[in-house]
Amino acid sequence: MKYKAWFQCIGGCPGRHDLSEVIYRCPECDNLLEVQHDIERLKRRSADAWKDLFDRRYKRSAWPYGSSVWGKKELVCPNVENDNIVSAYEGGSNLFWAERLGKQINVEDLWVKQCGNNHTGSFKDLGMTVLVSMVKQMIADGRKINAVACASTGDTSAALAAYCAMAGIQAIVFLPKHKVSNAQLIQPLANGALTISLDTDFDGCMKMVRKVCETNNIYLANSMNSLRIEGQKTISFELVEQLDWTVPDVVIVPGGNLGNISAIGKGFLMMQDLGIIDRLPRLVCAQAQRANPLYLSYLKGFKEFEPIKAQKTLASAIQIGNPVSIQKAVHILKQFSGIVEQASEDELANAAARADRTGLLTCPHTGVALAVLFKLVERGDIKPEDKVVVISTANGLKFADFQLRYHESRLPNVNHHYANLPLELPAKYDKVQDTILKELEKYT
Predict the structure, then answer these.
(1) CB atoms < 10 A from the CB of 186, how many?
(2) Is residue 113 predicted with pLDDT exceeding 80?
(3) What is the pLDDT of residues 148-166, one digit of tens each?
(4) What number of H helices and E strands is found in the chain?
(5) How is the chain split into domains, by residue range?
(6) Which CATH number applies to 95-121+229-407?
(7) pTM for the full model?
(8) Is the preceding omega at residue 64 within 30 degrees of 0, hence cis?
């Protein structure tokens, strides 16, 4: 059965645009576009048949369906021929049962979705495999595309660089100077991307890349391009599949440019349309207090939105004051009885460190989501019996400097409650033994 997908305006304008068209906004009203699917045709397969198909494909070796994104190809991007798919076997990341942390905060069923276990160390791979595959298809069909470009706070650039390197397509990345970790910076450099460091913030980089992509046959890869959203929505599919096709009660997502909260909501809505699930979770968007335009809008019932100048935050990847996907995010949150909450620098750093004490290794953005989790539990918005999933967006190893500075008590505006440094001792048995025994007394 041939499935179809196309671009269409999120504001309801009637025009359809082929996924191979280089277009990011509606030509009628300038709203963002989204990918629409032929739901009626998809419904010809029963919900049980979809679940069986996805289970049979999940993490198997038949190309390209072992990827947890492309295992849902019909629901993601059926327009790409399999030979043009660019995949690193993304998705299928661990759903970590945070049993010990859950007991500490009195949540019986707490899970952390480890999206940092993807190829380049973040959830951005899920969207980039779709976008770069579509570009490769367009090139194969004769369209001239000189390069693919993005503005980034680190993780998007890593994903774009890696997938373009796999495809043999030139990547161009714009980064805010001195505002990404060394681990994030080295990824596009190692993968051969043309890396441009600008003396501005992410919003400034975004303005620049959009202008560059207006001409020059350079394709834009930021999340205003809704092909990215199609890949990222498979986080929802994965969650439900990994929970034996049950729906969590609450899903907490860090929010910066707001593409991921939009994508996750879209995934749940699509599964509901197809009868795969019969209810929706409550979505929570977690923002850093220093980059909180969505939170400020939420306080006013989403009746108005004002971009802000984001302040420097430890959660650098979500240090965004003018999010591209604001309209999509608000639309989704309204449908999910959504909550938006914020976390201070002290709260996010200590939440990350506390979680690490229970076996995780947490990036600062996941720290924002965990801090919001603790707040919602404390005020009763999350109940002890709720099944809760926190979306961990990136691998903690990409932010080792953040973690080291925490344990060295060098983070500004943070009380380092869980700092833990090595004990430097002479290589003498008696001294080592005495110190160990003395330290162990603290745990008894």
Answers:
(1) 13
(2) yes
(3) 999 998 899 999 999 999 9
(4) 17, 13
(5) 95-121+229-407
(6) 3.40.50.1100
(7) 0.96
(8) yes
